[in-house]
Specification:
single chain; alpha+beta; SH3 type barrels; 2 domains; five-stranded antiparallel sheet; membrane; transport; Sec translocon accessory complex subunit YajC; transmembrane helix
């Protein structure tokens, strides 16, 4: 009398498979946008950084993550020896080298 009857949905509902796909479409579009705006550029930057570290050679002028400028004196597998002034050498991790400078930059400073 006060409670209405509850009926099951029919199998031929108009929403069906298309309705489920459209409900996930914003989520899928968000992941695609995140891939192209965040993940892909970061992977590209990491690949460029690795190529730069592999190409380090004696005589290159570099900047470290701490802001030190120096000329590469020796390169090993995990470490780089930098000459920061004449007669002063420091050893830093290879990953701390962030930028390769053009030749002659240190003399211009």
């Amino acid at each position: 009398m006060f409670i209405s009857n509850a009926y099951a949905q029919s199998a031929g509902d108009a929403l069906g498979l298309g309705g489920n796909l459209t409900s996930f479409l914003p989520l899928i579009l968000m992941f695609v946008a995140m891939y192209f705006l965040m993940i892909r550029p970061q992977q590209k930057r990491a690949k460029e950084q690795k190529a730069m570290m592999d190409a380090l050679a004696k005589g290159d002028e570099v900047v470290t993550a701490g802001g030190l400028l120096g000329k590469v004196a020796k390169v090993s597998e995990a470490y780089v020896t930098l000459e920061v002034s004449s007669g002063t050498e420091i050893v830093v991790q290879k990953q701390s080298v962030t930028m390769l400078l053009p030749k002659g930059t240190l003399k211009a400073l």
